[in-house]
Write a structure and sequence with these properties.
- The complex is a heterotrimer of chains A (592), B (212) and C (265).
- Chain A contains 18 helices and four strands.
- Chain A has 592 residues and is mainly alpha-helical.
- In chain A, the strands form two sheets. Chain A has a two-stranded antiparallel sheet with strand order 1-2. In chain A, strands 3-4 form a two-stranded antiparallel ribbon.
- In chain A, strand 3 and strand 4 form a beta hairpin.
- In chain A, helix 2 packs antiparallel against helix 4.
- With 212 residues, chain B is mainly alpha-helical.
- Chain B has a single domain, classed as Four Helix Bundle (Hemerythrin (Met), subunit A).
- In chain B, helix 2 runs antiparallel to helix 3, helix 2 packs antiparallel against helix 5 and helix 3 packs antiparallel against helix 4.
- The longest helix of chain B is centred in the N-terminal third of the chain and has 37 residues.
- Chain B starts with 22 loop residues before the first helix and ends with a helix.
- Chain C has two domains: 101 residues, no CATH class; 148 residues, Cupredoxins -  blue copper proteins (Immunoglobulin-like).
- Chain C has five helices and ten strands, in the order H-H-H-H-E-E-E-E-E-E-E-E-E-E-H.
- Chain C is elongated, with a radius of gyration of 26 Å.
- The chains are: A mainly alpha (592), B mainly alpha (212), C alpha+beta (265).
- Chains in contact: A-B, A-C.
- The interface between A and C is large, with 105 and 101 residues.
Chain lengths: 592, 212, 265
Amino acid sequence: MSESSAQQAHVHAPSTGFWRKYVFSLDHKVIGKQYYALALAAVFTGMILSWLMRIHLVWPEAKIPGLELLSKAGAPGGVMTPEYYLSLLTMHGTLMVFFVLTNAPFAAFGNYFLPIQIGAEDMAFPRFNMMSFWITFLAWVVLMLAFVIPDGPPIAGWTEYTPLSAIGKDAGPGMQWGASLWGLSIAIFCAASLLGSLNFIATTLDLRAKGMTLMRMPLCTWAWFITSCIALLAFAVLLPACILLILDRHAGTSFFIPAGIVASDRVQPHSGGSPLLWQHLFWFFGHPEVYIAILPSMGIVSHILINSMRKPLLSARVVIYSMMSIGFLSYMVWGHHMFLSGMNPMSALAFSFPTLTITIPATVLTLIWLGSLYGANIQVNSASLFALGFISMFVSGGVSGFFLAQPSIDIYLHATYFVVGHFHMVMGVASLFGVFAGTYFWFPKMTGRFMNEGLGKLHFWITFIGAYCIFMPFHYLGLIGNVRRYQSFVNDFMAPYIPLHKFITIAALITGGAPFISLINVVQSRFRGKWAPEHPWNATSLEWSIPSPPPWNNFGDRHPVVYHDPYQYGIKAAKGDFVMQDSPEQVPAVGD
Amino acid sequence: MASTTTTAVAPVGISGQTLARTPVKVAAADRASRSGIWVGLFAITMSFMAFTSALFVREGSLDWGHLVLPSILYLNTFVLLASSGTFELARRHMAAAAQGRIQSSELGKIWMLATLVLGFGFCAGQYTAWQSLRAHGVYLATNPNSSFFYVLTFIHVLHVLGGIAAFGYLLLKTVLRGASVWRSFLENTAIYWHFMGVLWVYLLLLCRMKLQ
Amino acid sequence: MGKFFAVVLVVIALASAYPIVKHHFPLPEDISTHGHLIDKQLHETMVEAGIAFVGAQLVLALFLWSFTGRKPGAPLKSFPGGAKGLVIFAFVIVGLEVLALGVLGQKAWASVYFTPAKADALQVQAQAEQFAFYFRYAGPDGKFGQIHPEKIDEGNQNYFGLDPENDVAARDDIVSGELVIPVNKEVHLMLHGKDVGHSFYVRELRIQQDFVPGLDLSVHFTATKTGKYEIVCTQLCGLGHYNMKAYLNVMSQADFDAWLKQQSQ
């Protein structure tokens, strides 16, 4: 499966022609940017969906301008129906988890920077790489089609539990074709993701430059590598699950549907299937998936923090081992999403222990980050603000996981806003902070210009404070038993908490302005940003040893040679307080 | 596991001609494609493990029945394993021809053709198995046993067809165009092909033990 | 800006902790026999999580205050003990905590799931469907009639698909839209899902359990206080999910017996 024929001198030829250069490019840098652009489209869509949901929750009779154009059935006169709320909820989750959190920190930045950081000319399989992006794009198109079909998007949530998602149109609106489009889209996404992971793994193992041992790889490269290993196994399980779901929906099989179900006054013609089977298969993928979402950001944040602090972490090796442990443990905990699902209660305890154990490497990482800040010389800029903010958000989001890991507490907190607060803080905020940090940090590398610092800082402060205003109250609401996935709060006990929900909605609307500021910043800076010098951050890893933006084959005709680890900071050296990774300059012997 | 180029300084292609890539880049690309194939096979294994666990869970239901496996499956097994055999013969012949140990690679090309024919034969045989089940009124949704049988065998055949496509590409380049092909491509396709045989034996045993 | 960040962090940490410390979001009153175990577990976890949360944010704030905006050329220092000390701390402290919560936490879980219902518990069947809960009592004969899915008829209020003509046990079954139970008596609630996944949640009872179509699941509990409490569905089941609720009505034994007698007529 080697990519090139004998006659080519390089992994692939320099791109010529519009289509090869900008559309079906084999260049990992272009592909990385394409993933980023797709993630941008998905995140703005997902965010607008969350606005619509938040508005409807507190002002259910509101006529939302333009909503009727999106769906006449879902929002007659601009007033959202209960089922359409669930449709938007499902699409919000699906877009955000798959097309934003798997794409942006991992596929986008990983594709762009992993080959460069290990000293390679491109990924191992550029054609597969190009295919993996366009197949992801196809998956996105198939998913978005659910918005335009008459019955609308599915209403079963991004988790699409069976039998609700399997019995077809008798289950309710959106469950005839919308759910099938969901299943097809995710199946296609799985295939694309597998191709992508294949590339990352083979490239990391085999295309490292001379002197680039595994332990000398930057922490973000390690994070992308570990993530790709996790993703390979996780998506390999979700794909069969989606296939079986599609068969139940359209081929009359009964993998997930038991006998005797009566929906819409019809006895469903199925028997023997297991709804729990779907949950097991889904969460076997679903839990590693959330670590796929956070690990790359951990790597990116570590990488940027070190540069901003002008000193290495207390131990890069410990960080690597912690990330590996998290990756390993992530496969043992999926049942903690299913404590109350009806599975054997003994299993609940069995899953609870590794879940609680994951706290250990997560704590190690946090303590290393914090401990490394001690005595540092922290440079404050947009990139480092987001990296530092990540630590705060990761702690906040992480401690609530501590509650949910215990089955007895989960009896009370399951399916409440406590859970929603937990995963939004770790995934929706912390993980995205890694993406933002990476954007500000690597923008000069990708374009040769700086992003506007003023706008960047504004983006940070609105997002940081706003995210706390939105998601911290979710935990309090969970504590009083506010149930999730409700389009309206009609329970007696919810009445006193509606004002808090209004506060959250307003905070969300304001905070949501920040990404627009960032988008304007990206576009404006791309064309009119301040030119960046050769060493904009005085950074050490290999991406900074090549021009900005990098040439098509990254290192030109030279083969980079690496002499030491990428975190030689805080030392007296020729260029200042740092030594680049490919510099043969002598560095003081350090512990790791 | 990593394939190496020949001992000559300039790398040599499958048909013996000199290649333009530097030895370092060739070696790296070969190693990467070898890693790639094993990683890919690992993912395929995981997927079939997912199907297997679905089968074990589903087996616990009251409506689990019995499926009489069509006897042609055993012939198909023989055909697929035979194709692995012919592929191995082909691979060794082509390697020997490239290293100049034998005169021509014609016999190797014949073995490759035989592999292709046997591969198609397996797929045709699987199709016949499905037809025979349908003739007995056993379809995809008839009972859970049949569902798993059809799903497992169909997905396996899809993967075999993928291997045939790669193999067909290989054959085309070698036989018709006379162009050189990386030896690693041939070897990687061989690994994939043999794996499909091993996987099939596993699936057959699984079906025998669990679905009947 | 580093110092401003530090101040913001302190404000956020304290502001986040404040509502918890001041009990602004109290748990609903506990009306169950096992709930105190859950509440204790939750409280302990809150203290530990709270210390970890506030502690980490304050440490981050302190370091941001101290180590941003330093003079160029300021000496770099390393955290005393280095990585080793922190790793040991994480393993020991977090390890102990994890062990404690995991091991001690079993009690609450066990009391709900590992102890079987008492032999003389009141047997009630709960059915969850799109979008309502119905409850069935066995009636004087103590036997539940069989459920026939094809006989389910919402229009005629035959929610359970009973066949009283042919099924003797079904004739005296009592079906109610409200879960009425006597106080201080163990109830064995058998959960039957009619169509898709649902869940049974009563906050005050500290009970939550999914309904899984095709699976016979059950929970048991004892209510310790009379009154009406809301039962809500917590598993996404379709467009009416938000409105799917019923009431748990805990009565004195005498009132319950009277109610049961009245339903039989």
